[in-house]
């Protein structure tokens, strides 16, 4: 069943999400989910505000971009060991990527360039079987 954004259930849900988005101390995972939800709903201003906030919290390293949990211990560089992030970090980074790519009109060249840095990190998290450490 497809519901339009004018349906009362959808309007009420979006109102709830907008209220949540206005919280001062939203967790990065929550911001990632909200950004994707607003992207799907076509709420461009809310999507952009959340993506701008998320960019300030991004970990930019080795030509890639990702997000991690606040207060997380830094990863250890060991020889012959490829660190893979916990599933929550793979998931929230993937949601930010989806929020960047879900845009009407189509994402700008700048957004696509940034999205490619996110995709680079996600690809680096694949295990030898091609899967990810994720519950999604």
Automatic annotation (TrEMBL):
One of its GO terms (cellular component) is extracellular space. Coiled coil: none annotated. Pfam families: TED_complement. SUPFAM superfamilies: Terpenoid cyclases/Protein prenyltransferases. This is PZP protein. It comes from Neodrepanis coruscans (wattled asity). InterPro entries: A2M/Complement_sys, Alpha-macroglobulin_TED, Terpenoid_cyclase/PrenylTrfase. Residues 5-136 form the Alpha-macroglobulin-like TED domain.
